[in-house]
Structures are given as C-alpha cells and as structure tokens.
Amino acid sequence: MSDNNSDAVRELRRALYEQQRTIFILRSQVIDQRAVVLQNLTRIESIEGYMTNNRGERFRPRFSPIAGVELGQLGRRLEMRERRRQNQADGTGNNAAGSSAIGRNEREDGPSSDSAPGTSGNLPPTPLSSRTTATSVQQNDTLGDGQGTSQNGDAAENGPGPSGILEAHMNRARVRMVRDEMVHRALQQQIEHQHQYLLQQQQREQAARQQHIREQLDEADQLHEQILEAENDENQDPAEQQQQQQRQIMQQQLYERNVRLQLREGRRFSSGAASSLVVPPAQLYWERECLICTELPANFYNRGCGHVCLCSACAVNCVLHKIATCILCRAPVNGTYAFVR
C-alpha cells in the first residue's frame, strides 16, 4: 500500500515538475516576444523622427527588403527617364549647332569662285560650340521655352545666362522634392502598415500564450493538490488508516440501516390497515405542505395535538431521530405519528 502511494507521489511530482518547466519556457518566450516587439516599435519611432527632421532635405533611410526593392525600381525609372530626356536634348542640340555653324560660315565667307572643297564652310562644328549649343538646347527643353534652332545658335554664341542656370537648378530641385515626397509617402504608408500588423500579431500571440499559461497553471494546481493528498495518505499511520476505513464502513452500514427503516416505516404508514390511525378531519389542523421540506404534501399528524404538518419522509426522519414534540406547536408526541388518507 505504501509502495504504491510512494510511486504515485513520485509520478505526480515528476508531472508537476514538467508542468512548471513548460510554464517557465512559455513565460520566457512571452518576454522575448515582448522585447522583439519593443525593438520594432523603437525602430519605427526612430525612422519616423528621422523622416520628420529631414523632410525638406535629401535623406536615405533604411528600408525593409520589399520596400527597398520597390523604391529602388522607382528611382531607377526616374533616372532612366531623366537620362532619355537629356540624351534627346543633347542630340537636338548637336544637330541645331551643326546647322547653325554651317549657315554662319556661309554668311561670313559668302559664295566665292576660288573656294575649294574641304574649306571652313564645309567643316563640322568645333567641340566647344557643340557642347555649348547642347547645354543651351537642354536648358530650353527643361524650361519649355519653345524657341527655334536660330535662337539655339545665338545661345551657343552668347552662352547660358545666370537666370537660365538658376532656373535649371530650381527645376532639378523641384524634381528632387517631388521624388523625395513620393518616397516619404510610400515609406510612411509602409511604416503604418507594419505598425498595425505588429500590434495585431502581438495581441494575438499574447492572448494565446496567456490562455495556455492559465491552462498550465490550472493543471499544476490540480497536480499539487493530488500530491498533497497522496503525501497525507502516505504520512498517515496504518492504524489510523484502518480506523478511518472502519468509520467509513460503519457510516455506510448506518446509512443502509436508515434507508431500510425509512422504507419499512413508509410501508407501514402508507398501508392504512389499522383504523386507529385515522382521525376525523374535524379534529385535525391540516397543512397543505410539509413544514420541514416544504415540497411534499402533508399526510402525517401528531396524535397529541392533531396537526397534519409532515410528509412521510419527514415523519420517518422524526421517528428515527426521536423528535418528541410537534413541529408546529411543540406539543409532546403521543406515541407515534399517524397517517391520514
């Protein structure tokens, strides 16, 4: 008997230790997850602050891999578009510079009979004039002046003025500001989505872990109670255990005896064979329900006072517990209770 109890206690202790270890691991995971979430939120706040402080300037924050790829593709598309426009402007400027240089040489030299082929009238423009003309055409294309090739030739001779250079820089600054604004909006939307996703994920994981921890704690409490009961059984003296078993047997026998007595008294009271048990209704004070249980109808009365105030089950209990007074008026019971049909 004691060996079985010792084995049971050891098994319960081992199970309790495993439950406590699982609870400790879950709590550590919850703490680690909270730390990761706090790090992500701190990183998001630092990026938001960096963006707010550098909104008007050109900045390069660190993006996630997906956002970095998308923003890189957007930047490459903008750069390729700007290069195509610049190449088109360079090609138009070179053509315009060549035609204007040829026309100018013909006007300066004039048609002469002694000019041979390969003279200065048929030579290509110098690199300096073509480069200057390309710059002028690019500025005209950027500003949207709509001037012709003759004006480009004049600009090639005179060179770009300070106002043209300033306006070109202003246009580049506007393009840069628009591009930075687009990047800022895309980054802000991504940060908001990531922030909401992290919060929702943290709430779901925290709720699931808390529920699991509560279940583990309940199981641990049950195991602890079982261990305490097993230890109490193990620490009891064999003589005390034997006495406790005897008391349980005696209580069971007493309960069975009371049940048999109740059945016998009920059959005797409900038989109605003896005419002496019946009293005329005029001499009785009849209650509708039993005064003790207030559930069953009253059909037993006291011979001394004639109060019908007990049901069959309560009358049997009064006989078994030797109650010698009436429940209603406290009058002494004359003999036993009688049944009324």
From TrEMBL:
The keyword Signal does not apply. Residues 83-166 are annotated as: Disordered. Residues 88-98, 112-153 have a biased composition (Polar residues). Gene3D superfamilies: Zinc/RING finger domain, C3HC4 (zinc finger). InterPro entries: Znf_RING, Znf_RING/FYVE/PHD. Keywords: Metal-binding, Zinc, Zinc-finger. GO terms for molecular function: zinc ion binding. Residues 290-330 form the RING-type domain. This is RING-type domain-containing protein. It comes from Heterodera trifolii. The lineage of its organism: Eukaryota, Metazoa, Ecdysozoa, Nematoda, Chromadorea.
